[in-house]
Design goal:
This protein is an all-alpha fold. Helix content is about 70%, strand content about 0%. The chain has ten helices and no strands. About 35% of the residues are buried.
Length: about 280
């Protein structure tokens, strides 16, 4: 029966993430009690610091470059620890996974782990960039430029880290390297897509909680599947999640510099902004 503990772990953790999200959303402020500023009734909330695109590119680009350099430095320092001491944790977990693997569950994981494949994430990013560029009226060029930059920066920063740390992967997958690219991409690309959709079409705390829970669940699933299938060492998977989260924070900050800091108007109650505005009239 111990073979099924790993299967149970996946179900328990995913259920925990979704359960926490449900509890948090039940404690959110009712829609009618939110400040009027959160319900302006338009999708263009948040003034852009400067609409002259060279200034926008310079400011947000500088933030992205500096932030990426900081992330690279953090991951390089972490890499020294992982490469020299990580196997003390990785090898026992690897042996346990190999001896307790359930073949039918492994077949499921082989399908689910594909959400972190390079071309899968890139296709999702391109699709999101096109849809957002069509749907969002202001700074239409910003969405495609953002995703194109993320693809290039993530790809070459990861290659640079792998060039610095020539860490072989588990015996079943010797090409696995530090950090896990699949875990990184799931957090970075799906997290960025979720953030932009939340910002432009909702902006509510409830929607933000569910978006975060879904992205977190996807990230856990990717890390779990890579370790369960012994495609990566455990510490590589954890490092990939951290790496993706740091890059996500960098590019969200760069986007906010370019597009403004405030999210889109609340849409929990259509027409709410008009009713609140009418209520404030003498």
């Amino acid at each position: 029966m111990s073979r099924y503990l790993a299967v149970l772990l996946w179900a328990v953790v995913i259920a925990a993430f979704l359960g926490i999200a449900l509890l948090l959303t039940r404690r959110t402020m009712p829609a009618h009690a939110r400040p009027a500023a959160a319900a302006t009734g338009n999708g263009d909330a948040g003034a852009t610091p400067s609409r002259w695109w060279p200034v926008v590119v310079l400011r947000s680009g500088s933030a992205a470059v500096i932030g990426t350099a900081v992330v690279f430095g953090i991951m390089a320092l972490l890499g020294l620890l992982v490469v020299h001491h990580g196997l003390a944790i990785d090898k026992p977990i690897y042996r346990w996974m190999v001896s307790h693997r359930v073949h039918s569950w492994a077949a499921v994981m082989k399908r689910l782990t594909k959400i972190g494949d390079t071309w899968t994430c890139w296709a999702a990013a391109v699709s999101a960039a096109v849809c957002l560029a069509v749907a969002v009226r202001r700074l239409r060029w910003l969405m495609p430029a953002l995703f194109a930059t993320v693809i290039v920066v993530d790809h070459y920063t990861t290659l640079a880290l792998r060039h610095v740390f020539h860490r072989p992967g588990p015996p079943d997958s010797p090409l696995g390297t530090y950090p896990s690219g699949g875990c990184d991409r799931v957090i970075l690309f799906y997290g960025l897509i979720a953030y932009l959709l939340w910002r432009e079409f909702s902006g509510t705390r409830r929607a933000g909680i569910w978006a975060a829970a879904i992205v977190t669940s996807l990230g856990f699933n990717e890390a779990y599947s890579r370790v369960y299938l012994t495609l990566h060492w455990f510490t590589d998977a954890l490092s990939g999640l951290l790496y993706g989260g740091l890059l996500l924070a960098v590019f969200i900050a760069a986007f906010r510099i370019a597009a403004g800091s405030r999210p889109a108007a609340s849409r929990d109650r259509p027409g709410q902004g008009g009713r609140l505005a009418a209520a404030r009239r003498p």
